[in-house]
Every structure is written in C-alpha cells, then in structure tokens.
Specification:
Blueprint: E1 2-7, H1 16-30, E2 34-43, E3 48-50, E4 53-54, H2 58-68, E5 74-83, E6 87-95, E7 99-106, E8 120-126, E9 133-139, H3 150-161, E10 167-172, H4 183-189, E11 193-194, H5 195-198, E12 199-203, E13 208-209, E14 221-222, E15 225-229, E16 233-241, E17 255-262
Parallel strand pairs: 1-2, 9-10, 12-16
Antiparallel strand pairs: 1-17, 2-6, 3-4, 5-6, 7-8, 8-9, 10-15, 11-15, 13-14, 16-17
C-alpha cells in the first residue's frame, strides 16, 4: 500500500492554487491508497455541500480536482477548532477504497472549538489494502504545554488504537522524533513502531525547517510528521516529499510517503 501524510496549512499559503495543482498532480501520479491530511481548513461562511463539508474544504477541493482527472477518492473530515477566526480547521482521511466505518473523537481535555488547542482525531477503517486497516489522521499538541498536556492526548490515542489489530497513526504529532525523553519516545515506549525506522530505503528525515506556527522560536530541523503502527509491517520505502527536492514545497510542513504491506 502507498501512503501519504501532509499537514496542508490550507488556504494560508502564498500561491495556494498553484500548490493545490502540485498536490493533485502527485496524488494522481503516485496513486496513494491512503492519505492523511491535517490543517484541512474551510471558511466558516462558505456554503455547505454535504454534512459538515463546505465547498472550499481543502480536502474536498482536492477530491473534486482529482475527480476531474478520473481519479476517485473517498473522504472523511471533521472540525476540531477555529483557526485565524475565519477557518474551521480539522483533519481528513482520503482512501481509494470505500470506508467500512468512520468516526472522530477529541483527545484533548478541552473541546471548545474557540480554543486552538482543541484536538480531534479522525479514524477510518479501510478495506482492501492488504487487510482491514484502522487509519488515524492525527494533529496533536506540544509536550511542554501545561494548559493542554499532550501526554493526555497521547494516552487517549493509544487507548483507542489498542482496539485495532492493524492501525496506522499518521500525521503531525508536534513532537520531534530527534528529541529523547519526550512525546516521540513516549509513543515508541508504549509499543508503536515508526515506519521511518522500519524502512529498507529512506529518503530524507526532517519535515519542518525552522520557525512555523506553533514553533515560533524554533531554529532547527524537526521530524514531527510521522507514520506509526501497532502491528508487524514491511516498509520498503519511506520518503520526505514536498520539501523542495522531492516535489515542490506546498506547505510549511513537508509531507511523508511510504510503501508498505502487512506481514
């Protein structure tokens, strides 16, 4: 199975339409089975097209553009909090095969949509990709945040994943894999495996360079966009994409793609 995760920084990018073109072109050419997206924004006053989805929902725009190319993806999205006052920000999962089920749940203590620290996970059960797979699109908080401690969020996420025989936890974890003794190690110490370390072939590592929103004082490379699993898996390739070398830059995060199959 081919997998992609990307924090989109949706509708906050310069040359946004051009960057949408780049994302759509790569999805169409790489034929990903599963895509997890974070910071999937829609304007709070845009017309509703279905359920919670507004016509400028960033994931919906991608799906519609792909449909014009004859490429069909199924989509699920939910809203976690307001961003920049005007956006409903959430996370999404796209799948080439229909979902067997979908759900979303808060992992943060706060569930106030006016608090940007509210964190909601979207989960989908996907069939036909080697075996039924639980896919989580994750956008979590920060290790040293006393107001909204990420350990609580990680515990909630781990508790949910315990129910799954095969789970992929994908997304922006906001915890740097280069740092020891913090959120990344907490996840690994609780039984998750990182597809980066399992991969036979690796291209790149860091997904953020320097200062971005939420990392205002950062001056170094970070690996915070991750692909984790709770089950035995063979990973033939793990690569950083949309980093200016392996594909054009489309966001303040690079994406990550992998090719893998369940053992």
């Amino acid at each position: 199975m081919n997998i992609l995760t990307l924090n989109c920084h949706a509708w906050l990018e310069d040359r946004q339409q051009e960057k949408i073109d780049f994302i759509v072109e790569r999805i169409a050419s790489e034929d990903y089975d599963i895509i997890a997206l974070q910071e999937v924004n829609q304007h709070k006053e845009a017309p509703i097209v279905e359920g919670l989805i507004r016509e400028n929902n960033f994931a919906y725009v991608l799906v519609e553009r792909l449909k014009e190319l004859g490429v069909t993806y199924h989509m699920t999205w939910d809203f976690a909090h307001y961003g920049y006052d005007v956006y409903e920000e959430g996370v999404a999962i796209l799948s080439r095969t229909p979902f067997l089920s979908t759900e979303s749940f808060f992992v943060s203590k706060t569930t106030d949509p006016n608090n940007y620290k509210s964190r909601k996970i979207v989960k989908a059960i996907v069939d036909g990709v080697d075996a039924p797979t639980a896919v989580y699109s994750c956008h979590l908080g920060w290790w040293h945040d006393e107001e909204e401690p990420v350990r609580h969020q990680l515990d909630e996420l781990l508790r949910r994943a315990e129910e799954d025989d095969r789970a992929l936890l994908l997304g922006d974890f906001n915890n740097d894999a280069f740092l020891r003794g913090e959120g990344y190690d907490y996840l690994i110490d609780h039984g998750l495996q990182d597809l980066f370390h399992l991969a036979t072939e690796r291209e790149g590592d860091a997904t953020v360079q320097g200062k971005i929103a939420g990392w205002d004082e950062n001056k170094k490379a970070l690996r915070i966009d991750l692909m984790l699993t709770n089950a035995p898996i063979h990973v033939s390739r793990h690569a950083v994409v949309f980093d200016g070398e392996n594909g054009p830059i489309v966001s303040d995060h690079a994406g990550v793609e992998a090719t893998a199959f369940w053992r």
